[in-house]
Amino acid sequence: MTSLSGGGNAAHPDRIDTSRPHPARMYDYFLGGKDNYEVDQRAAEQFMKAAPEVREGVLANRHFMHRAVRHVVAEGGVRQILDVGTGLPTEPNVHQVARSLAPETRVAYVDNDPIVAAHSRVLSDDPDTTVVLADLRDPRAILDHPQVRAVIDFDRPVALMLVAVVHFVADAEDPAGVVATLRDALPVGSYLVLSHATGDVHEDRREGAAAVYDNASASLHLRPHAAVRDLFGDFTMVEPGLVRVTDWRPEEERRPDAPPIGIYGGVARKDA
Asked: What is the distance, to the nearest Å, from the Cα of residue 240 to the centroid of all Cα atoms in its chain?
């Protein structure tokens, strides 16, 4: 579940906007899903022309997310997950991965696309899971949301997941401050799982690819390794640190002809 919580129809947060592509629905299209519209499909196809490796990239990002969830649950002992920018459901979802290891894990999903909330009906009878319609760029509203508070106890360790979402927050919207507000709300023993698109890998065509999102509900902002690393603040990075998502504790070797993936991923722990 990775997509976005930056952007959207602020005037009518419960209205699905089909006039512009939405990154969550484009991501769904990249994954081969059907919860998208023609406007999303056109934009996604345009992006794939500029970045042919994107489908492999989103799959690699998703597999990173699965490995990171297994780490924070199995090795970190976390039993609460706040997944901001969850996107459209694609199995296995975060709660399914986590509960395969610890059935008592509680999960709060947050996204700003109403179509995501519409899919939450399947979870309506699950008291340990909630789906909240909110925007990453207003982190305080997420932390104070009654549905989030009903599932997440911020006095106990939490795994905060910001997977492929912060790159949809513009510099003028203070992505570092947004992430810091969420980080600072977490108690000792919590984790931050974050992935972020970068232009470091494909510098020759990064501007053309990012420009596809200029007409979407949220634009794409590629950032270098140092800027992404700074988003973790003073949290302690888990080995191997901030690396390309394909290199974060891979469980199988990539094929020799696989294209390099321009997404960094990392996991860090709050020790003090």
From this structure: 20
Q: 229 and 190 in contact (C-beta within 8 Å)? A: no
For 103, half-sphere exposure in the C-beta direction (CA atoms, 13 angstrom radius) is 0
Asked if residue 168 is part of any domain, the answer here is yes
pLDDT one digit per residue (tens) for the chain, 272 residues: 333 333 333 333 456 777 888 887 888 888 888 888 899 998 889 888 878 888 889 889 999 999 999 999 999 999 999 999 987 667 788 999 999 999 999 999 998 877 776 766 566 678 899 999 999 999 999 999 999 999 999 999 999 999 999 999 999 999 999 999 999 999 999 999 999 999 898 655 555 666 666 666 667 899 999 999 999 999 999 999 999 999 999 988 888 888 889 999 999 999 98
User: Domain containing 235 — which CATH number?
Assistant: 3.40.50.150
Domain that residue 113 falls in: 56-200+225-269
Whether residue 240 contacts residue 267, with contact meaning beta carbons closer than 8 Å, is answered with: no
Counted domains in the chain: 1
Q: Classify residue 216: in a domain, yes or no.
A: no
Residue 172 lies in a domain: yes
Write the CA distances from 100 to 11, 66, 94, 158, 177, integer angstroms: 39, 11, 10, 18, 34
Residue 69: which H helix or E strand, with range?
helix 54-70
Q: To which residue do tokens 């999903």 refer? A: 109
| Spatial separation of the C-alpha atoms in residues 235 and 94, rounded to whole Å | 22
- In this structure, is residue 44 part of a structural domain? no
